[in-house]
Design brief:
Blueprint: H1 2-75, E1 80-84, E2 90-93, H2 95-101, H3 105-108, H4 122-135, E3 139-146, E4 152-163, E5 169-178, H5 180-202, E6 206-211, E7 216-220, H6 231-234, H7 239-242, H8 245-261, E8 263-273, E9 276-286, E10 295-302, H9 304-339
Antiparallel strand pairs: 1-2, 1-5, 3-4, 4-5, 6-7, 6-10, 8-9, 9-10
């Protein structure tokens, strides 16, 4: 009896134990699955982080390359770049800027920009900065710098104001362009133009520029008395609108020949000026400058004295011819009388 009773209890306990064990195994399986999923997620996340890290490294390298390229472009630009504070002290400068000022970059930083400006232009620089700060607009001015070899160094400043987030002035950004070569070229051109103008002024003839339609564009006259009308009355107008029909027709005929052959010489026309009749000999040549319309340079030489002299000579020749005829007639009559 007792054995059967205890046997039944042990059997019941065993069954409960096996049931608990089964439950534990099932819980362990579920826990294992959860752990496996967690490990998988962690591995995936790790791979994602590694890929993101590779992208960050690549982006950082690209940014460093871009920054290096920017610095090279900044330093080796063909113009000088300067950042100045409100007092004109140099905060930042590129290599071209330091070359323009003629000193290594480390020696110009924290120095006043005005120290490198020629004394005669310092007031101009001060006014320039004042205008930029006042208007907060980009401004330009031309000044002369003190070059290391003491030769004139002309530059153009393009300056803008940089503002803080609250709109207050922060600093100047200045672009400095070396105009020395351009200045030299301009001086040579000016010298050439002055020499050319002196040569033109020395020409005793009336000079003018017209197009193929005979429209006046420019003129040069040694004497205002040689003008048929005042400049404001003929510039921009055609010869037909300004001159008498006969003179205008002759000039247009000369223009036509110059257009076909490149030049024309010897056309003579007559004008009635306030102080009397004037004769002019016209020479025209095509201007060697490409334009939408052909332009011509004309020279009108006053040949009035020559013309008057020719008229007097012709009159004298006619008188001489008449005199010779008269003498011949008288001699013939006398000979006839003697023979009779």
């Amino acid at each position: 009896m007792v054995e059967n009773e205890y046997g039944g209890k042990f059997e019941e306990l065993r069954n409960k134990a096996e049931e608990v064990l089964r439950d534990k195994k099932e819980s362990g399986k579920e826990l294992g699955l959860e752990i496996d999923e967690l490990i998988h997620e962690l591995e995936v996340h790790q791979i994602e982080l590694e890929m993101q890290n590779e992208d960050l490294i690549r982006i950082q390298i690209e940014l460093e390359d871009s920054r290096r390229d920017y610095l090279e472009l900044y330093d080796f630009a063909p113009v000088g770049y300067f950042t100045l504070d409100e007092n004109g002290i140099i905060k930042i400068a590129n290599l071209t800027g330091s070359d323009i000022l003629g000193k290594p970059r480390k020696f110009i930083i924290k120095s006043a920009f005005i120290l490198y400006v020629a004394p005669d232009y310092r007031k101009t620089l001060h006014s320039h900065f004042h205008q930029v700060m006042k208007t907060q607009l980009k401004k330009q001015c031309d000044i002369e710098l003190i070059s290391p070899d003491k030769t004139p160094l002309f530059v153009t400043l393009d300056t803008m104001a940089v503002l803080d987030e609250d709109g207050t002035f922060k600093e100047f950004r200045v672009v400095v362009t070396d105009n020395s070569e351009r200045k030299k070229a301009e001086e040579k051109i000016e010298e050439f133009n002055n020499q050319l103008q002196s040569t033109i002024n020395a020409i005793p003839d009336l000079m003018f520029e017209v197009d193929i339609e005979g429209r006046f564009y420019d003129y040069n006259s040694p004497s205002a008395g040689d003008l048929y009308v005042q400049p404001e009355s003929f510039l921009g107008k055609t010869v037909s609108e300004v001159l008498p029909p006969e003179a205008a027709a002759k000039i247009m005929e000369a223009l036509k020949e110059a257009s076909e052959k490149g030049k024309h010489r010897g056309m003579i026309y007559q004008l009635t000026l306030p102080y009397g009749e004037k004769y002019f000999e016209l020479s025209i040549a095509k201007k060697p400058v490409p334009k939408s319309k052909s332009h011509f340079i004309g020279l009108a030489r006053d040949i009035t004295k020559r013309k008057i002299a020719e008229q007097r000579i012709n009159e004298a020749l006619k008188e001489k011819e008449m005199l010779i005829k008269e003498i011949h007639h008288r001699v013939k009559n006398n000979l006839t009388g003697c023979l009779i």
